[in-house]
């Protein structure tokens, strides 16, 4: 167990819950790589932080609780329950996220979030899209493509 890395994961999620972008950024290595089912590969601290600003802009009232945080000298993990309102549809979402981390220079250099996309799409999109199409590769690709386009166009204020 590496207590510094456990504390780093905790500090990241505390900052995320407060939408404290400066504190989140301090947890990430300059060469951070992030991925999840919606953003499959985002590289570099500036781009990853832009993605978080975009993400938090479409989530109202985000609360996040983490448990099972563990880390050694090289890697770590956590389970988080995030609750928010998906602003595009006004629907409540509870996302159960399993996060994996890699560390370099006592910072997070790789951050991978996994969650059930079908379950997420049912909550975030509602009927008929979520339950009917949430499991399909076509809907997943459409959502990924839209997210990538929004990230390219997004200019944080």
From TrEMBL:
Domain SnoaL-like intervals: 11-111
SUPFAM superfamilies: NTF2-like (SSF54427)
Database matches in Gene3D superfamilies: 3.10.450.50
InterPro entries cross-referenced by the UniProt entry: NTF2-like_dom_sf, SnoaL-like
Source organism superkingdom: Bacteria
Record protein name field: Nuclear transport factor 2 family protein
């Amino acid at each position: 167990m590496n207590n510094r890395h456990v504390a780093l994961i905790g500090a990241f999620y505390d900052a995320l819950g407060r939408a404290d972008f400066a504190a989140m950024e301090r947890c990430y290595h300059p060469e951070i790589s992030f991925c999840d089912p919606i953003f499959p590969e985002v590289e570099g601290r500036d781009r990853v932080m832009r993605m978080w600003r975009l993400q938090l802009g479409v989530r109202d009232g985000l609360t996040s609780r983490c448990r099972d945080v563990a880390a050694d000298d090289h890697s770590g993990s956590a389970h988080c329950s995030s609750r928010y309102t998906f602003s595009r549809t006004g629907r409540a979402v509870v996302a159960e996220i399993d996060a994996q981390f890699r560390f370099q220079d006592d910072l997070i250099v790789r951050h991978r979030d996994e969650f059930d996309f079908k379950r997420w799409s049912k909550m975030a999109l509602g009927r008929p899209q979520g339950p009917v199409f949430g499991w399909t590769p076509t809907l997943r690709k459409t959502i990924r493509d839209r997210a990538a386009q929004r990230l390219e166009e997004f200019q944080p204020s």
